[in-house]
Design goal:
The strands form five sheets. The chain has a seven-stranded mixed β-sheet, sandwiched between helices. It has a three-stranded mixed β-sheet with strand order 5-15-11. The protein is of the alpha/beta class and 330 residues long. It has one domain: Spore Coat Polysaccharide Biosynthesis Protein SpsA, Chain A, CATH 3.90.550. The radius of gyration is 19 Å and the shape is globular. Helix 1 packs across helix 9 and helix 5 packs antiparallel against helix 7. Helix 1 links the parallel strand 1 and strand 2. It is built from ten helices and 18 strands. The longest helix is centred in the C-terminal third of the chain and has 26 residues. 37% of the residues lie in helices and 21% in strands.
């Protein structure tokens, strides 16, 4: 048996639910543990009773964990505390589901278009799987936040896998700020050290796993027989990082931040169907539980963002539209 885990609050629930349903379309028996980051998310997930999903209340998760309580009280921000939770959640699932041979953490903004079995096939007997960001050469400077992306990280329930999780948890409890510091960055920067510190760590070679705005320009995207390919590998799942809903009902993608063209195949075969599903699930959730406020802008520690003028916002939107970075679901 394999288990998956993720977390989100009620504002991110529609995206998280989109990820979960996409995974279970391709892996109908997938077992997914969801750490609910606020009471409303927990109540909603319990009421929805999604097949194969086990909701965890944050208070229950935190109960009796002195190390986590100390980290929470040390002045780190809310987002930083959420990042702190990642290895603790993996550890929790390993302990709660000892029958699971492998536990995989998933970001809530992934979307599966195929069974991720090729990831496990490549993993073989390895204890840990991590995935490189895979930036194009001109964006390599962004590796300062981590060579590897935390969107998918797998741990086998063996000595190496559990030791790695414990080490990661200790480090994030010590420090997990949303800034770059001496090779560290939130929960993600620590992944750089996994291959040096632990045996059995495998960096995934599959080009269609964790396709994302930051690496899509480094791959040749094609469609063959109705299947989307990244180089010679079928696309398994896409990481919809940074997608923001606009007042027009359209969505601004993050491709501009990575200087990555949004090619028609990616727009029409990934973004549009994903955004249709997110929009549909948002309507479903709001019809049942009431309106949900948008996710607030993430503010990096030490960064004072100035609100642009209305004219600058208008010009920026026009430029993003001209460059093809804005997508309508339909």
């Amino acid at each position: 048996m394999r288990a998956y885990c993720t977390y989100f609050d009620h504002r991110y629930l529609a995206k998280g639910l989109t990820m979960i349903r996409s995974l279970r379309r391709h892996v109908p028996d997938a077992q997914i543990w969801v750490l609910c980051l606020d009471d409303r998310a927990y109540e909603m997930m319990v009421s929805l009773a999604e097949p194969g999903v086990r909701a965890i209340a944050l208070a229950d998760f935190e109960a009796g964990d002195a190390a986590l309580a100390k980290a929470k009280a040390d002045g780190r921000g809310r987002v930083e505390y959420i990042f702190t939770l990642t290895p603790s959640l993996v550890r929790y699932v390993i302990r709660a589901a000892p029958e699971a041979a492998i536990v995989t953490y998933l970001d809530g903004d992934l979307w599966f278009v195929a069974d991720p079995e090729p990831v496990y096939r490549e993993m073989g007997a390895a204890s840990v799987v991590i995935i490189e960001h895979g930036y194009v050469p001109e964006m390599k400077h962004l590796e300062i936040t981590g060579i590897y992306n935390v969107g998918w990280v797998s741990f086998r329930n063996d000595a190496n896998g559990t030791a790695c999780v414990e080490w990661w948890r200790e480090r994030t409890n010590e420090w997990c700020l949303d800034c770059v510091d001496a090779g560290r960055f939130a929960d993600q920067g620590y992944l750089n050290q996994f291959p040096q510190l632990f045996a059995g760590v495998h960096a995934l070679a599959h080009r269609g796993a964790n396709l994302a705005p930051w690496n899509v320009a480094a791959r040749t995207i094609s469609s063959r027989g109705g299947v989307l390919y990244a180089d010679e590998d079928p696309v398994l799942f896409f990481h919809f990082h940074g997608v923001k809903r606009m007042k027009t009902g359209e969505y601004l993608t993050a491709h501009g931040a990575y200087k990555a063209p949004l090619v028609p195949l990616v727009r029409d075969l990934l973004y549009r169907p994903y955004l249709r599903e997110v929009s549909s699930i948002t309507r479903e959730v709001e019809a049942r539980f009431g309106a949900i406020e948008p996710v607030p802008e993430r503010k990096l520690r030490g960064h004072k963002a100035k609100r642009p003028s209305r004219l600058k916002e208008t010009l920026k939107t026009a430029l993003n539209r001209w460059r093809g970075y804005i997508v309508a679901p339909d």
